[in-house]
């Protein structure tokens, strides 16, 4: 079972966030946490907190499974553009330059590499018996 965590209206440009997100996409959770902890870019701290939230969401959905045996990995991470604050900065000769303060939305999906318990397929067996 996969777990999702979302982070909205992060006051960082999407381009800067994507540079850090590309480091952890498809990586196991323990390695991703280590990467984010030692990354010097400022979005790494927010992503580390988001990853911990996704792990907690997975644990809440799978209370009977152990975290160590689940072998979690970062299945998907997407960074979308958020709302943009538009400001004006004075420029020479009475002009004004636009300042666009960008923000972003991050969606992180964590899944287990371990094979999940398969549910019995009742409909498939009923159709073949008739």
Instruction: Give the strand content.
Output: 25-35%
| Count of runs of 4 or more consecutive helical residues | 5
Tertiary shape: elongated
Main beta-sheet strand count, sense and barrel state: 3 strands, antiparallel
Low-confidence spans: none
Order of helices and strands: EHHHHEEEEH
Tell me which CATH architecture applies here.
Alpha-Beta Complex
Oligomer: single chain
| CATH C-level class | Alpha Beta
Task: Please name the fourth-level CATH homologous superfamily.
Answer: Ribosomal protein L22/L17
Proportion of residues in helical segments: 40-55%
Spatial gap, N to C terminus: 33 Å
The average pLDDT is 89
CATH topology: Ribosomal Protein L22, Chain A
Radius of gyration: 21 Å
Family: Belongs to the universal ribosomal protein uL22 family.
Organism: Imperialibacter roseus
Keywords: Ribonucleoprotein, Ribosomal protein, RNA-binding, rRNA-binding
Pfam families: Ribosomal_L22
